[in-house]
Amino acid sequence: MNVQTEVYNLDDGVKDYLSAGQTQLPTLFFLFSLAYFGFLGLWIYICYNNKRSVHRIHALMAGLLLMKALNLICAAEDKHYVKITGTPHGWDVLFYIFQFIRVVLLFTVIVLIGTGWSFLKPFLQEREKKVLMIVIPLQVLANLASIVIGETGPFIKDWVTWNQLFLLVDIVCCCAIIFPIVWSIRSLRETSKTDGKAARNLAKLTLFRQFYIVVIGYLYFTRIVVFALRTIAAYKYQWVSNAAEEIASLAFYSVMFYMFRPVERNEYFVLDDEEEEAAELALREEEFEL
């Protein structure tokens, strides 16, 4: 005997297979996907108008925006079809594929920007390559855990173990991507004592110190604040944590892309005699402590 069970809400007589707290997610994800497609168009426009200042890292950043937009559009379609039919019709597969590429690209871009690859130096040092060799396989494992968590539930034997594994791997990756930024700050601090380019080095130190703070803030918000919202929010407002995460991600992308945009005369790297003298004084007096 075959038994089929359906669980759904009725919205003006129409079946809604999503829970009450997730029924807004298709619209939410679709709107954010449009925002990222617009962001990608703006980024391409900026790169086109500043061809001389475009580096390989900027192409990777464009790829990251594309993957984020595709990830969100697939998430919107996934939730939409689940909402009206109860099954994702294959959109969940595309969602996990683009999510994997997007997450790996995000951590890779943060690491490469943190090392100054492409726009400050054309190669990676051995320790920086090791960070990438650690982060990328760990992200493969984290995405595998994410798929198991998303496609199953507490009814399977090792569901809690997969949750713990995902949390552990995510924390390790978040810690690992901080090291290249710290190394760059220390390297620039040492360089500023010997190469006589105080203004340029002070600008770079300021830039990387600000990037360090932005990355820490982003990781803290998306890993701790979003988790807290997901835990304390009433079941009808589960979508709020998703909205908060997407708003924080868009803000982080906007700040990061603005800081490292391709411009011929970036405000951080403009040199002037008076600024040079002021920078030398600042480097003597100011300590960039982490």
Number of strands: 2
Q: Percent range for helical residues?
A: over 70%
Structural class: mainly alpha
Poorly predicted ranges? 267-276
Question: Helix tally?
Answer: 9
The rounded distance between the terminal residues' Cα atoms is 65 Å
**What's the order of the H and E elements?**
EEHHHHHHHHH
How confident overall, as mean pLDDT? 84
Main-sheet strand order equals: 1-2
Radius of gyration: 22 Å
How large is the share of residues in beta strands? under 5%
| Main sheet attributes: strand count, strand direction, barrel closure | 2 strands, antiparallel
- Global geometry: elongated
Give the tags.
9 helices, 290 residues, elongated, 2% strand, two-stranded antiparallel ribbon, mainly alpha
What do you see in this structure?
The protein is built from 9 helices and 2 strands. The termini are far apart. It is mostly helical and 290 residues long. β1 and β2 form a beta hairpin. The protein is elongated.
Task: List the topology elements.
Blueprint: E1 9-11, E2 14-16, H1 25-49, H2 56-85, H3 91-115, H4 126-151, H5 159-176, H6 178-191, H7 198-232, H8 239-259, H9 273-285
Antiparallel strand pairs: 1-2
Helix pairs in contact: 1-2, 1-8, 2-3, 3-4, 3-6, 4-5, 6-7, 7-8, 7-9
